[in-house]
Amino acid sequence: MGEVRLLGARITGELDCHGGLFYNPKGYALAVERAHMGGGVFLGEGFLATGEVRLVGASITGDLHCRGGIFHNPDGLALMADRVDVRGVARLDQGFRTEGMVRLEGARVAQLDDDEASWPSEKKLFLDGFVYSTIGNGPMNAKARHRWLKRQPQRPFRPQPYQQLAKVFREHGYEAEAKRVLIAKEWARRKHGSLECWTRCWNWLLYLIIGYGYRPYQALGWAVLLVIVGGFLFGMVYDKEIVIPTKAEAYATDKKTRQATVFYPDFRRWLYSLDTLVPIINFGQKDYWGPQVACNRSWLKGGSIIRLCVCETRALYVYRWVHTAFGWMLITLVITGFTNLVRKE
Hints:
Elements: E1 4-5, E2 10-11, E3 15-16, E4 21-31, E5 36-37, E6 41-42, E7 48-54, E8 59-60, E9 64-65, E10 70-80, E11 85-92, E12 97-103, E13 108-114, E14 125-126, E15 131-135, H1 142-149, H2 160-171, H3 175-192, H4 197-210, H5 218-239, E16 243-245, H6 269-277, E17 289-291, H7 303-338
Parallel strand pairs: 1-4, 2-5, 3-6, 4-7, 5-8, 6-9, 7-10, 8-11, 9-11, 10-12, 11-13, 12-14, 13-15
Antiparallel strand pairs: 16-17
């Protein structure tokens, strides 16, 4: 009953509280702040604390063993371990249970052992500044670890827990999982970060087109879609004679045979769409075919039909400009994606 304080203590061996009962529901049940332990700290296997357990700034040469320990403080901090330094393994799994908040901000451990059943409830976990070299016993996939990160309060947005997790994944050789975590980081930044409206829109656009630079190949799908859409539209206006030859040699014919005297490339709707989408490569279509403001349909009668033709032509000019602008944007984003210029790690 009451508070147990070991502030600044120097213990050459281990601090063994296995099976211990500590009860102080309105204050500190066990306070081991700024203490130095030459061995491990054991707060498991029947350990029960009602009230706050504080390990702030403690230095632990061995392991922090909390397996089977129960930390009960539902209205406050159950485990306060900011800036704790654990040279061994932090064992927060296999029956480790908390009712209340768990803070590990600024803490450093050599290895983290945990499991999903032992994670604190939503908005009860604080990980900003938490550094761990490896994950021993615990989920090693981005989907599960994303659920772990979402146990934190989402506002204000803090990128460090995502970056630390991605770093550990990469050091274990899980490059794809690291990329998923970093994509989740940018997604969380857009949802919960203090971004201006235009920055939020740009963030969303980067996700859709190149996956924030971690999936630049996504742009290929958008390029294929634009080529298909453009091919249908350009083919439709070509059938209406709105897309016509732009060079005089197309009309050069022999007066006797009425056949073309020079070669002129045929209109190919898909190639024309690709040619206007990828401006840095010339496929020989956009130089020879284009929209014509003057309406060349000889059978048209009436001013309203001619006005409709002009409107269609102007719309084609606008769409072709948009089509090319999207092409430039895709090329730019793909280049920046492959060169890591848009990544924030």
